[in-house]
Structures are given as structure tokens and as C-alpha cells.
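Lab notebook, page 48
Experiment: co-folding of the full assembly
Goal: obtain a model of how the components sit together before planning crosslinking
Operator: M.T.
Materials (sequences as entered):
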Amino acid sequence: MIALDDTDRAILRALSADATVSAGAMGRQLGLSQPACWRRIKRLQDAGILAGRRLLIDPAALGFGVTVFLGIKLATKGRVSLEDFERAATAIPEVQVVQHVLGLFDYRLKVRARDIADFERVLRRRVMTLPGVGQVEANVVLSEERRPGPLG
Amino acid sequence: MIALDDTDRAILRALSADATVSAGAMGRQLGLSQPACWRRIKRLQDAGILAGRRLLIDPAALGFGVTVFLGIKLATKGRVSLEDFERAATAIPEVQVVQHVLGLFDYRLKVRARDIADFERVLRRRVMTLPGVGQVEANVVLSEERRPGPLG
DNA sequence: CTTGAAAAGAACTGCCT
DNA sequence: AGGCAGTTCTTTTCAAG
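Observation: model returned without errors.
Model output:
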């Protein structure tokens, strides 16, 4: 773990919004030279804080308009059933994220579907037939607001 | 909306894993020339499918080891209270995502904290005091597996 | 769709304060 | 730590097949 100053945080904030900005352009905005800014970025990468640059894909532009979060309680909780469930859940193409969680539910799934009818198909034919699945609770996402910058 | 062929999907899959790969390097991998590959990327950008490139920050490297998803049921549901709740929830630094959802709960919050003690502080002093908050349910994330590529 | 080339710019390297 | 100057690479745009 490494200590970040205000300049590092400004760099992370800028790159979080748009990772395509060059080190030179960002340096000008922060009053730093291009190499100085570049060195800080490299330091953040080497420290593992900057873990990579990923694409932001708009699901709506691909025709996927519905996002649903499922809370799932397993009926049978053995060591084997956990792995079985995870493997089967990960194999469903519409399932974007599989989280093993502690609390009211055992697993949380993020599901992307084209529309509500498509979601119902995924729910009935794929999710409800997962090995060991018990109680299932669904939350359809209406709107989402996310904090762009780094934490803290 | 636009139709994607297998090559487009391969490009999205490669860029989803690592958005830093150059158009030339990807073209070689796919058997395409550099300009041809570059044109496809630009087409995906113009279509809005490729919405941007964002940073992947490792929260653990910054000392944030705990992720908790909160399901929140509002006690009072007027038009005003929804906006009040959203504004107040977004203002909490530890809250990364605020989702308005349909289902058992009204809102879902993604909360990042340094540890469980830090999370309890956020929960008691910030979340439980949000305007109109009713029932609160928490799920601590143990592990997470996400599908890298594009949907469908 | 391809190749090739040229111009712009970004990334990286030493050396200096 | 930061800045300056220079080299190497990619991106981006052209012309032409």
C-alpha cells in the first residue's frame, strides 16, 4: 500500500472519467510537465492501484435494456453445492456477475436481458433450474447513479 | 442499433479485457490490417456501443477491503422523498453506486469501506440517518466473478 | 477490403535543477 | 520530487490498388 497526495488523486479522478486522456494533456491541466505526470501514472500502475484500463460498453446500444439483480438463497449448502452453483451460474450468458455474499442471501447475480419477456425466459429456464437454488428475489434497475472518482 | 459480426465481437472481447492494446496489434491477432481494425473500432465508437474507456482501480490496494450491498426500503414514498433520498445517498463518499430499483426494495447502494468496523460507522452514522429510510438489508461480498466480454 | 507512406502525437529515456 | 530535450512508438489520415 502506498500514500497518495492530492495530485495522485486528481490523476485517478481524471483517468476514471476518461482513460484515453494523454499524460501530456493531463499534465497541462494539473500544472505538471508530461514526463512528471507520466512518472506518477507509472508509479500508480506499479503499486497495483491502477489495475488496468477497461472498455465501457453501452448495453442499451446492443439491445439489452433490462438489468436485474437477483438475490438467491440456496436450499442445500454443502461445500460441493457452492461450487456446483457457481459453475452453473457463471455458464449462463445473461449472467454478468456472480457474487458470493454474506447476509440474507447466499449469492447475488447481475442479469442483463433484452426486455422483461427475455428476462422471464432466463429466470424460468436458466436461473430457477440452477443446482440447489432456493428462495429467489429480484430487483429490476430503474436508474443508476455512480460516483466516478476513486474512493476515500 | 447496429448489427455486429464475429470480428466486431472479437474486438469488443479483446478490448474488454485490456483497452490498452493497439489497433495494429489486435489486427495482427485477428488477421486484419491495422487501418481495417482501426475503422471497425471507430465504427463501434460512433455507434455508441463503445461508450468509453475507464480506469480499473483496485480498491484493496487503496486499503478498502470491504464491499457491501445494501437493500433499502423507504418508509415514506413521495416524489419529494425519492429525490431527497437520492441526493443524500449520493453525497456519502463511501457510497459508490445508487440504484433506484423495482422489487422488494426501493434502492440498492454499493458501499466501499476499509473494514467491517469502518462499514459499521458508515451504516450507523450515514446510511441509517438518510431521509425516509425504512428497512435496511446488507450483503457483504465474499468473492466476485464477472464475465469479461460483451453481452449476448 | 488491402498495402504503403506520411504527419501528428503520445510514450518513454537520459540528463539536469 | 520536477523540467527539458530528444528518440521511439502508435495513432490517424492520406493515396492508390
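Interpretation: Residues 24 and 65 of chain B are 38 Å apart (CA to CA).
Next step: discuss with group before ordering constructs.
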